[in-house]
Amino acid sequence: MRGKxxxxxxxxxKGEVDYGKLIKKFGVSKLNDKLLRRIERHxxxxxxxxxxxxxxxxxxxxWILDEYxxxxxxxLYTGRASTKGSKVHLGHLMPWIMCKWLQDKxxxxxxxxxxxxxxxxxxxxxxxxxxxxxxxxxxxxxIALGFDSKKTHSLVDTKHAGLMFPQxxxxxxxxxxxxxxxxxGFNDTNxxxxxxxxxxxxxxxxxxxxxxxxxIPCLIPLGIDQxxxxxxxxxxxxxxxxxxxxxxHSVFLPPLTGVGxxxxxxxxxxxxxxxxxxxxxxKKINKYAFSGGQHSVEEHRKKGGNPDVDVSFQYLKMFxxxxxxxxxxxxxxxxxxxxxxxxxxxxxxxKINVFLNQHQKKRKLAEKRIDEFLYK
Amino acid sequence: MRGKxxxxxxxxxKGEVDYGKLIKKFGVSKLNDKLLRRIERHxxxxxxxxxxxxxxxxxxxxWILDEYxxxxxxxLYTGRASTKGSKVHLGHLMPWIMCKWLQDKxxxxxxxxxxxxxxxxxxxxxxxxxxxxxxxxxxxxxIALGFDSKKTHSLVDTKHAGLMFPQxxxxxxxxxxxxxxxxxGFNDTNxxxxxxxxxxxxxxxxxxxxxxxxxIPCLIPLGIDQxxxxxxxxxxxxxxxxxxxxxxHSVFLPPLTGVGxxxxxxxxxxxxxxxxxxxxxxKKINKYAFSGGQHSVEEHRKKGGNPDVDVSFQYLKMFxxxxxxxxxxxxxxxxxxxxxxxxxxxxxxxKINVFLNQHQKKRKLAEKRIDEFLYK
Lengths: 376, 376
Known about the structure:
The structure is a homodimer.
Chain A: E1 7-9, E2 12-14, H1 19-26, E3 29-30, H2 33-43, H3 48-51, E4 55-59, H4 61-69, E5 75-79, H5 90-106, E6 110-114, H6 118-122, H7 128-144, E7 152-156, H8 161-172, H9 177-184, H10 192-202, H11 207-212, E8 218-223, H12 227-236, E9 246-250, H13 278-288, H14 297-303, H15 311-320, H16 324-336, H17 341-366, H18 370-373
Parallel strand pairs in A: 5-6, 5-8, 6-7, 8-9
Antiparallel strand pairs in A: 1-2, 3-4, 4-9
């Protein structure tokens, strides 16, 4: 498998990602056990995302903890670039759930960016009305995750441009088009809005420092494909008087259809959406979830399944089964052939539907809470 | 003289400009007598800037009058990119005085842009604090010209970014970096803020249409060197549902030192600033104003002077002597040798000082009126 090619950019994830290689290529650090123990000293336990290395790499996380231990609390920055026809799926939730857990454990503020101009600028067919509608829907998902409204501030780029643009130009002055070309693969046919955009994306990483008139450390949990944007921020922010943001990188939740690439909501067969009904979840998992099982029950009982390539097992491991003992038993039972693919899928379906049932109730309640979360 | 080379870009004016050639090169239309008569039907008289072809070319001015005659009033758009070490000089006032006159005669709204990010983005050494301070000073000059505060709206880019940025991205989406390269001579080393900037500059040309939810014609009086920015606006605005702005182009007020280039306030010897004292004006005119006179009084009496290259005469013609008969007499007297250079300079010094005395009083009063002119 090592020899297979893969590609990870902010715009595309292709092939089966070799995360070991990616760590070297991107020049990030592995989230090792020593660092996990250091986190645990402050949090008592470790979220399964950390325990199981769903978040597997970082930049400057030790520094974030140094500062925290000196009494200089960090804030968290995450976001969502809403667009037409792309609803929130389980993969999107991972950095947000990570933020929520870190908020709870470290009492950290969360700054949530909704760059409603990004997809408008990048995609010909997407209008600002499309991204505004989608932003509203996506905010419901964020709020439903249970963030503390007193410590969570949403920035919607077109709504908060009065605050953000005067900061974005400070960043923009330090970024040449050469940098944009080499970082994002742009050329002269790209529009000047998309060229400027990365400056807007950098703003929440230092805006709290501007507002409080002191340098505050920033930690950004993200899918590793988004690292490029923040490599630029890390380069520029010290030049304008702020800290480099620290980063915590996650792997991609695999698409239903297999372990390559990342979950995408533009293809129904690949993603579980937060708005899916129990029947849709059942149908999608049964129909599409790539199985590590054998072709017949007899063969499966005899040879056993392969949980390491089985998408249902991966979802349990990466997201839905927090109990390490139970997960281990499922692993062994599936590998030995004691547990059939249909049984494994049923466990996952049940878990997802319990989660989505709760999420959708909270999502409904969130409709009345949007304003609470907007920065004022 | 025809053979001499000259260059006119938004960033530099070099050499003795051949305005006839420029009309062809830029593809603009000459402001001919027929069109002047058409304006006069609405205004009863013609400002000396029009009568004497200081504003000498246009784009779509006939269309502006067509719409006006149908009852669809135009608005005016002008601006000033404030920067460190560049104070307002007489040349800057020309498009603004033109706007004030058009406001009075046509009852037009004036939208005045102060893009306080522009020079910050274009010049390494300029800070946002510099441009903000300079913007304040420059607003005093604008207000001092007597605009109607009920019909005049100032936009300061960093203050009004909340309003402007969501419109600028609509423009930006339609402009590629190729266009910026060929229009402004940019390359890959330019920063992404300066690349984006022309989108911000386009906004006031359609913002009133956005706010009033109907298409309103826009007329932009400007020095012809600024035409490039608005060629792009004219190309893009119809693509996003608004009218092309019409343009009224002026020649450049020559620098004190001669008829080539344009007045510049970064060199003391070249410009009369609005804040100059009577003694400074006297000194600058006497010392620097390029003279069309002869080397001795005797020679001047015999051969006469050349008013066509004499800067003092040009300032009287382009700005300070509205009376055509008086101007003609000065021309003839200087040409015949009856009027000496010192006498001609004294006439100009007196005129400038009367103007600046009034202007500086109104400029002082303007300190309390800034808020009245900010768009709210």
